[in-house]
Design a protein that fits this description.
By secondary structure, the chain is an all-alpha fold. The chain has one domain. Helix 1 runs antiparallel to helix 2 and helix 7 runs antiparallel to helix 8.
């Protein structure tokens, strides 16, 4: 891993730590389960970034790292569902649990189903993180101005997660997202994703 990637991952970790701190603080005051889910997602992002800084991109080959990293999109999407779509939160919670178990079992045991499970569950979580904040901002106009940037972060996490999943499956997405290209853009992509989350969620936290 290049020094540039390490610096960018460090900045990403600092943003993730800030968001986790903000959500934990609000959870202590209001006891909203959604804040616990948000905090989980960003704590895992922080830990993942630190591990990558010291362990390098080779850690991405570990099925355990892949399984734990799945908690990032699942945690954030669970937070959004619990905060804004409460009627469906239980159904999505079961879906997320099944997805986590499917990714864990297929990854650790090297099952072919991994090539389906990872893009499927990462994709659904990414679509929720992408679509729900934009809908709340642009259509319902019930969310604070700027909260839609969370949706931008969701789009980036969806693209990165799916591209990485296809790369791990040995089938580069669209023939463009080769292993070399993905590793070249991954650190900046994670930073831009987290920056979008930081700005968007801060607008909501400060509202």
């Amino acid at each position: 891993m290049k020094l540039f990637d390490q610096v960018v991952l460090l900045l990403t970790g600092l943003l993730a730590a800030y968001l986790a701190w903000r959500f934990i603080g609000r959870y202590r005051r209001e006891q909203g389960l959604y804040d616990a889910y948000y905090a989980l997602g960003f704590v895992v992002l922080l830990v993942s970034g630190v591990l990558l800084i010291f362990g390098g991109w080779g850690l991405l080959d570990s099925p355990y790292v892949l399984t734990v990293a799945t908690l990032i999109p699942l945690g954030i999407s669970l937070g959004l569902m619990n905060q804004y779509l409460r009627a469906y939160k239980k159904y999505y919670a079961w879906f997320a649990l099944f997805g986590l178990l499917a990714i864990a079992v297929s990854s650790i045991n090297g099952l072919a189903f991994k090539s389906v499970a990872v893009p499927l569950f990462h994709g659904v979580a990414g679509l929720i993180i992408f679509g729900l904040p934009l809908y709340l901002c642009l259509v319902k106009k019930s969310a604070p101005k700027g909260f839609g940037l969370v949706g931008v972060g969701g789009g980036l996490i969806g693209i990165g997660g799916i591209a990485l999943a296809f790369y791990k499956a040995g089938r580069p997405l669209f023939g463009i997202f080769t292993g070399e290209f993905i590793l070249m853009i991954l650190a900046p992509l994670l930073f831009l994703m987290t920056l979008a989350f930081a700005v968007g969620f801060t607008r909501e936290l400060d509202a």
